[in-house]
Amino acid sequence: MHTGEKPFKCNLCDAEFTVNSCLKRHLKIHSGVKPFECEQCDAKFTVKYHLDRHKLIHTGAKPFECELCDAKFSTKSHIKTHIKMHTGEKPFKCVICKAGFTRNATLQSHLNIHSGEKPYQCELCDAAFIAGSSLKRHSKVHTSITTV
């Protein structure tokens, strides 16, 4: 019977699990050991499943299709996030300004606005940014070729 109870708790973060095997797999994240490496890029993973899921990026396979629009995704987590766009669900709330977000990672990036922290540093100049997307956009300044 499914009670929703999650008795297996990580002592290093707030993660909770219904079965001990999932907790054991999760603990590998904290070890920093990433034995599963993608042959096509530098990505490394703690769990083989995560590597297998990552490889879909290189194949272009997008087996997860949104029933509400034509969007397709390579991972289940990406389609879950996408569906929140249709429903308007924003479960991750900023405790400072109450802004809502569909992803925790987006909330974490947003919190840098309030703290003033700029963790995304350009390796080619002194520019620093609150969001990784801003650094990516900025990096085009260094790669654009101007002709006279």
UniProtKB/TrEMBL annotation:
GO terms under cellular component: chromatin; nucleus
GO molecular function: chromatin binding; DNA-binding transcription factor activity, RNA polymerase II-specific; zinc ion binding
Keyword set, alphabetical order: Metal-binding, Nucleus, Repeat, Zinc, Zinc-finger
InterPro entries to which the protein is assigned, alphabetical: Znf_C2H2_sf, Znf_C2H2_type
PROSITE patterns: ZINC_FINGER_C2H2_1 (PS00028), ZINC_FINGER_C2H2_2 (PS50157)
Cell location: Nucleus
Highest taxon, organism lineage: Eukaryota
A family per Pfam: zf-C2H2
Main subcellular localisation: nucleus
Keyword set includes Metal-binding: yes
Annotated C2H2-type domain residues: 8-35, 36-63, 64-91, 92-119, 120-147
GO BP term, pick one: epigenetic regulation of gene expression
Keyword Zinc-finger: yes
Protein name: C2H2-type domain-containing protein
